[in-house]
Specification:
The chain is an alpha/beta fold and about 325 residues long. Helices cover about 30% and strands about 25% of the residues. The protein binds S-adenosylmethionine and 2-acetamido-2-deoxy-beta-D-glucopyranose.
Length: about 325
């Protein structure tokens, strides 16, 4: 049901309040003791079963003549999504600072904005961009953590409704944050900051919603905006996550890429794919891991295999001359 699909998508932002790796299942009999177990190793059998279940419903593809709209109208589908769900769908990404402490500036503070700024955040010593910010479930935890640090947050989404939700949020503060509408697949996209100006680019469940053939271009273009030493922080759906297995027949667009009932799309990444994506753009790996967990519905005694990708890639510093 769509409801279940929503619950899975929603849970993908959910994380236990414990850091990654805090709960390791050593005794299989303990499985129903917690809602979530970390660093789950899949047996070859489990992997094969996941592959088969995926193939079961992915073999029939949506005909190519019907596929175009999911790409050309992607923005409309997401706009309708936010019209329908407003800010009620995704939960705040509470795990952000546990997994991505790089979001907090470590250098000396400063003033995020000044009267004489020629662009928002020009004088901030530390600048973050979130791409595909949606209703702000990552932006506001960040905004509320960087007060008085001098850091500044930009965020964009191609859904103007999403951007409006961010701007209407009670915590939206123009001295710390600038939200704007931008399609990052647009090759001539214009951004309110110059190249080489960002310390962090945050990509949380956004690259998966973009057509796989466009993703490399997006990463290449975005990386132009990172300072040398600047970093991409990425978290997204992983290959053979339960939500991939559960796609019904007739939803598959191409290998590991699907459209949901509402027209929004989702791709499921492997570790190798994530690595080539960022290294092809000339970035160096800091972290690239497959976050495999078991989620347990204790009431119904259901065991669910979840897979997310979590990666950090840095723009290398120029070689000393
Ligand atoms: C699954 S949501 C995640 C939202 C948010 N990052 C969060 O963590 O709650 C994906 C978001 O990416 C946005 N998006 C998808 N394709 C985009 C594009 N080409 N340019 C800008 N935003 C895009 C969608 O509008 C949607 O808000
Ligand atoms: C595949 O799709 C059918 C309906 O088209 C559904 O009944 C079945 O549960 C799906 N398979 C998996 C593994 O979810």
């Amino acid at each position: 049901s769509l409801c279940f699909e929503n619950a899975l998508q929603n849970a993908s932002g959910g994380r236990p309040p414990t850091p990654l790796g805090a709960r390791i299942l050593t005794n299989p009999e303990d499985i129903f003791q917690h809602n979530m177990w970390d660093h789950v190793q899949w047996t070859e059998e489990a992997k094969e079963e996941a592959r088969q279940k995926t193939n079961e419903n992915s073999s029939s593809r949506i005909p190519s003549e019907e596929q175009g709209k999911y790409d050309t109208d992607a923005c409309k589908y997401w706009d309708s999504f936010y019209e329908r769900h407003q800010d009620r769908f995704f939960k705040d990404r509470k795990w952000l600072f546990l997994e991505f402490p790089e979001l907090l500036p470590s250098g000396p503070g400063g003033r995020a904005t000044e009267e004489r700024d020629s662009f928002p955040g020009e004088h901030a010593p530390f600048r973050i961009l979130e791409v595909g910010c949606g209703a702000g479930n990552s932006v506001f935890p960040i905004v509320n953590s960087i007060k008085h640090t001098g850091a500044f947050v930009y965020c964009c989404d191609f859904s103007s409704r999403a951007v409006q939700l961010v701007k209407d949020h009670p915590d939206y503060d123009q001295s710390l944050c600038h939200a704007f509408v931008q399609d990052i697949c647009d090759e001539v996209a214009s951004f309110p900051f110059p190249p080489l100006s960002l310390d962090v680019i945050l990509l949380v469940f956004v690259l998966s919603s973009i057509h796989p053939e466009r993703v490399q271009g997006v990463v290449n273009r975005l990386s132009e905006f990172l300072k040398p030493g600047g970093i991409f922080l990425f978290r997204d759906h992983g290959r053979y996550d339960l939500s991939q297995l559960r796609f019904k027949k007739g939803r598959c667009l191409s290998d590991n890429f699907y459209t949901r009932g509402d027209g929004t799309c989702v791709y499921f990444f492997t570790k190798d794919e994530v690595h080539s994506l960022f290294s092809n753009a000339g970035l160096e790996e800091i972290q690239n891991l497959e976050d495999r967990r078991i989620q347990v519905n204790r009431a119904k005694k259901i065991v669910m295999y979840r897979v997310w990708m979590q990666s950090k890639y840095r723009k290398t510093l120029p070689a000393p001359s």
